[in-house]
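Long-time lurker, first post.

We've been arguing in lab meeting about whether pyridoxal-5'-phosphate would sit comfortably in this protein at all. Half the group thinks yes, half thinks no, and nobody has a model to point at. So I'm putting the question to the forum: if I give you the sequence and the SMILES, can you give me back a predicted structure of the complex? Inputs are below. Any interpretation is welcome too.
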Amino acid sequence: MKVLVNDEILDRNQAKVDIEDRGYQFGDGVYEVINLYNGVPFTLKEHISRLYRSANEIGMKIYVEPEQLCKRLLDLINVNNMKDGGLYLQITRGVSHRAHQYEDSIKPRLVAYPLPYKSVQTAQSAGVEAITADDLRWLRCDIKSLNLLYNIMVKQKAHEAGAFEAILIRDGVVTEGSSSNIFIVKGGILFTHPATNKILNGITRTKLLEILDKHGWQYKTEPFTKEALMEADEVFLTSTTSEVMPITNIDGVTFSHGKPGPYTQKFQDAFRNVVNSEVGSAKKA
Ligand SMILES: Cc1ncc(COP(=O)(O)O)c(C=O)c1O
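Top reply:
Settle the argument with this. Predicted structure of the protein with pyridoxal-5'-phosphate, as tokens:
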């Protein structure tokens, strides 16, 4: 496997991390995960623009233009002859003697490499289980930071309970999943938390909302409570790797008769059509 380190493509075993990299020591950095369909990185521009936004929010300057970075990522896909799977991309603040504060001269370090393909089709047709957990994260969840400690803790809790995701609740309100955005359908209307500092504004979430706009399907980006979640007709999550994923059981309570509901299926199909058409046009270009 070949990996991208700053502006060089290297063999996996040539890529080394400095023990004083602030990403390694503090989780001081930002990242993205991008899905590939038939060699095409889906919503690449959107992911790259969120990466630059996250970096900017933590006061980190990325010393390469977004277009140049996209080009390097395409080279990485080509050199690895990738078809399906994903790309992991992270930028840390750089290397310095260990101290919380840093100097302006510090140079960010970039690493990107292929992620293996993992099929989500079976889960998408059957639905997955979730648990609920308190949202005890900081109040800048809009930054896609390498600091994922609480997300890891609740995802592990879900995993140990045999569930796929942990749905987070802050002050009685459903914010998002440990690595996904959460949607409910009630009385034919879709609800999801607004894109504030309390959630990561998912690229899949944004794409789905654009699709809904195009079809004229109703939705509300409004906070909803845990009670509303538990009384919903349908629940699903979105993320880069899961796309539109039905949730059919939460904390042992069954939803939409234990299978993906009609709205969820409609959104899954609409999302898949957009993926196919965008990937198709990128292939022709
Ligand atoms: C906390 C959190 N929320 C939402 C998402 C979904 O974002 P996206 O659709 O861009 O993958 C993720 C993805 O990893 C996440 O970590």
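For your lab meeting: The longest strand covers residues 29-37. The CA atoms of residues 267 and 273 lie 10 Å apart. Whichever side wins, do check it experimentally.
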